[in-house]
Design goal:
This protein has 225 residues and is α/β, with parallel strands linked by helices. The chain folds into two domains: 115 residues, Rossmann fold; 97 residues, 2-Layer Sandwich (Alpha-Beta Plaits), CATH 3.30.70. It contains nine helices and eleven strands. The strands form two sheets. A six-stranded parallel β-sheet has the order 3-2-1-4-5-6, sandwiched between helices. A five-stranded antiparallel β-sheet has the order 7-8-11-9-10. The chain is elongated and about 60 Å long. It starts with a strand and ends in a 7-residue tail after the last helix. The model has no long low-confidence stretch (mean pLDDT 87).
C-alpha cells in the first residue's frame, strides 16, 4: 500500500483523493481551504488545512516519507512551482504536478517534477481516440507521444495467439497485460483477473488487452466491430 500526498483539492485533486482512497491507498490531503478539507476528510488518512508550499509544515506532518506527491493546484502556477521544488527538497521520491499548458509543463519538469499531468489535454486525447478508434477503452499518457491503453479484443484477434498476431511487429506496441474473467476460487461467480498472456495463449472475445507504445501506432489499431 502506497502513501500519497495530494496538494490542492479542486475538482481534480478531490477526485484523485477519492479514487486513491477507494483503491486502498493511504492519502494525505492538503489544501488551504478548510471547507475543502472537511469535505474530503472521510476519504483521506490525514486531511490538513495548510500551505502546501511550506517546507517546515510539510515536514512536520511527515510528507517527506510519502512514496509520491501530486500537486493538483489548478490556477496558481507559482504555487505549483514552489510546491514542486519544496517536495523535491524534502526528498519525496516521485512528484507529479498539474499543468494547464505545455510551456508550464516544460517549466515544471525543469524544476524537478518527475511527471506532469494535463487533465484537459489528456481527456481530449482519450475522447479523440474513442471517436476514431472505438476499441480504445482507456488511455494514460506516460510521456509525450506515448501512452498505455486498454482495448477490447478486436474480432479478428479472437482465437489467435500473440505470436500469431505479431502485435509488436505489426503495430509497434507491447502487450503489457490482459484483463479477463476467470472462475472464482471455490466455483460460482467469476472474478476479474489481470494476467500476462503467454505467446501461444489464444485471445478470448471478452479479453481487455493492456498495450503500451506510441500514440501514432495506437491509432492504427483495428476497431471493435
Amino acid at each position: 500500500m502506497a502513501s500519497i500526498a495530494v496538494i490542492g483539492l479542486g475538482r481534480f485533486g478531490t477526485r484523485l483523493v477519492r479514487n486513491l482512497a477507494n483503491a486502498g491507498q493511504d492519502v494525505i490531503a492538503i489544501d488551504r481551504d478548510r471547507d475543502r478539507i472537511e469535505h474530503i476528510a472521510d476519504y483521506a488518512a490525514l486531511a490538513l488545512a495548510m500551505d502546501g508550499t511550506d517546507e517546515a509544515a510539510l515536514r512536520s506532518k511527515g510528507v517527506q516519507k510519502c512514496d509520491a506527491a501530486v500537486i493538483g493546484i489548478g490556477t496558481d502556477f507559482e504555487a505549483t512551482v514552489l510546491a514542486t521544488v519544496t517536495l523535491k527538497q524534502l526528498g519525496v521520491q516521485r512528484v507529479i504536478a498539474r499543468a494547464r499548458t505545455r510551456i508550464s509543463a516544460r517549466v515544471l519538469r525543469r524544476v524537478g517534477a518527475d511527471a506532469v499531468v494535463m487533465p484537459e489535454d489528456e481527456a481530449a486525447d482519450r475522447w479523440a481516440n474513442r471517436l476514431i478508434g472505438p476499441s480504445v477503452l482507456n488511455q494514460i499518457e506516460f510521456h509525450e507521444g506515448y501512452s498505455i491503453v486498454e482495448i477490447r479484443a478486436p474480432e479478428d484477434w479472437v482465437g489467435k495467439s500473440l505470436a500469431q498476431l505479431e502485435v509488436r511487429a505489426r503495430y509497434g506496441l507491447h502487450v503489457v497485460a490482459c484483463k479477463r474473467d476467470r472462475p472464482a476460487q471455490g466455483g460460482g461467480a467469476t472474478e476479474l483477473r489481470i494476467e500476462v498472456p503467454g505467446p501461444t495463449e489464444p485471445i478470448d472475445a471478452d479479453d481487455v488487452l493492456v498495450l503500451m507504445g506510441k500514440d501514432e501506432d495506437i491509432a492504427k489499431l483495428p476497431s471493435v466491430k
